[in-house]
Amino acid sequence: MLNKVVIYRQEAVVYGFGYIKDQLCYVTQDHDGFASEAVFNAKVSKINHAEHSAFIDYSPGKTGFVNLAKGAKLQDGANLLVQLTWLGDESKQAKFRLGVQLVGKYVVAASSGISSADCSRASATQREMLSQAMLAYPAKWTLRSSVKQLADIEPVMLEIEHIGTQLNKLALLSSDNEVIAGVPNYLKLLRSLPLAQDCLISSNDKLVDEQLLHLQDCWLLDTIEYNPRLDMENELATYRELVASTSYNLSNGASLEIHCLSGINLIDVNSDQAKFSRSKLNFLVLDAIYQQICLRNLQGIILLDLLKNMTNSEQEQVIEYLKKLFKHDITNSKVLGFSHSGLCELIRQKF
């Protein structure tokens, strides 16, 4: 559980520092501009029927890329409702998906032709009330697993109303501008991870503080502090030093070498100074590997070069433990298993 979150603006970048038991575990970054999950009524600028894809103009002077469903009958100039999945960088364009999926802390609403409400995660006494609230808005609704931890459904009802208002806005769509603002990564930190009682959330940005106050009752944010003089420069310097370093030493004598090669992240485990056997060490480094992946926000394909000569049983135990670690990650991650070369493969989505 997060016991402290600091949202700190430095010029055009907003950093989100997430602490578990006062230890820094997550760092997010948001640059001024559109956030992922933003919804646009875009215009198709160039369509490729053979590749089932299209380039779109989603904002004045902004072009992105979207994959289309097979058999989609669209022409250049057509309007298309799309959702931003990745903003892109200097060399790659922004990526979008068709349709809309509005994600909250407790519920998910997907634009769909058939309205439905999956409240199976709620108690029997709560289901009817939640279903009625959901079906007041046209969407495919699903309760998230976090609802199991709530005795009171009032925050869920508030979120249904909030997301329902956004759905109504989509139904009245008439312009080619941004329709619904996206979700900054610092909010995804609060949305995805459980918060400890009396979790302190502080920020030096007034707009961020207003966002937090708006979500306070719904997301059960206990303590919100606005401090325009908040100083996180030392923490930022330490974090940048960590990200710039390609090695990380563990107290048990092992070390991790972390490299990114053409978009593929490789984490190599070294045991020269280790105090444990090779088989035991592979399990002892997994928590540190998970921590470094989250702190450095490694994305895409991640290869773990653990110590060799593991048995099949040991490999299975490693896979199961990694799945347990990544279960509460702030983005979708998938542990693929071991390749024939002995590398453990993971995929961690951008967010």
What labels would you give this structure?
351 residues, alpha+beta, 5-stranded mixed β-sheet, 21 strands
What is the topology?
Layout: E1 2-10, E2 13-20, E3 23-31, E4 39-48, E5 53-59, E6 62-67, E7 79-86, E8 94-98, E9 101-103, E10 107-110, E11 116-118, H1 124-134, E12 140-143, H2 154-171, E13 178-180, H3 185-192, E14 195-203, H4 206-219, E15 223-226, H5 233-244, E16 247-249, E17 255-261, E18 264-270, H6 278-284, H7 286-296, E19 300-305, H8 312-326, E20 333-338, E21 344-348
Parallel strand pairs: 1-14, 6-8, 11-12, 14-15, 18-19
Antiparallel strand pairs: 1-2, 2-3, 4-5, 4-7, 4-13, 5-6, 7-8, 9-10, 10-12, 16-17, 17-18, 19-21, 20-21
Instruction: Label the structural class.
Output: alpha+beta
How many helix segments?
8
> Overall mean pLDDT score?
90
Order of helices and strands: EEEEEEEEEEEHEHEHEHEHEEEHHEHEE
Q: Could you tell me the radius of gyration in angstroms?
A: 22 Å
N-end to C-end Cα span: 20 Å
The beta-strand count equals 21
Q: Approximately what portion of the residues adopt beta-strand conformation?
A: 35-45%
Q: What strand order characterises the main sheet?
A: 16-17-18-19-21-20
Helix fraction, binned, reads 25-40%
Form type:
globular
Please describe the biggest sheet, giving its number of strands, its sense, and whether it closes into a barrel. Answer: 6 strands, mixed
Task: Please mark out the parts with pLDDT under 50 across 5 or more consecutive residues, or reply none.
Answer: none
